[in-house]
Amino acid sequence: MTVLLNVYFETVERAVRTHGGEILRFVGDAMLIVFAQENNQSAESVCENAMRAAKAALADLENVNRKRLEEGLPILRFGDGLHYGEVVYGNVGGTHRLDFTVMGVAVNRTARLESLTKQIGTPLLMSDVLASHITEPTVCCGDFAVKGVAAPLTVHALQSALPFAKVAEGNA
Fold this sequence. Notes:
The chain contains four helices and eight strands; from the N terminus they run H-E-E-H-E-E-E-H-E-H-E-E. With 172 residues, the protein is of the alpha+beta class. It has a single domain (2-164), classed as 2-Layer Sandwich (Alpha-Beta Plaits), CATH 3.30.70.1230. Strand 7 (138-144) and strand 8 (153-158) form a beta hairpin. The protein is globular, with a radius of gyration of 16 Å.
């Protein structure tokens, strides 16, 4: 199991580092990744970097899976949720155990987007906020009520992924 997870983590890490992101933590078989907006970097630049990293990780995983199939090994799948927003960051914990992390509504929305990837049927979903900051065309998949978020999330997928996404209507 750890060998399989490490193949997945290494595949994603390469894409994330190449595009300026940082893996803050591993949470079971998931990763908390941030693309910090630094040095007067525009929202568009940060969002484009996050989207490019996600697309690169998914493309790299296709190559990994092709080799795994040839070797008779199970393939790997993952979903990616992207959102742009403010977070609170710092060390949290107790006297004997601290952890550096990010918290806030933006983190929750990102996690909920990732969880919708299976339901919608596409491995890369994004909020309407992030979609408004990228140049690649997106398609609205609908509004989804999700745990911990008062208003339904408007979810987008890349138009290039449309044949794989189930475009939903009235899912709020």
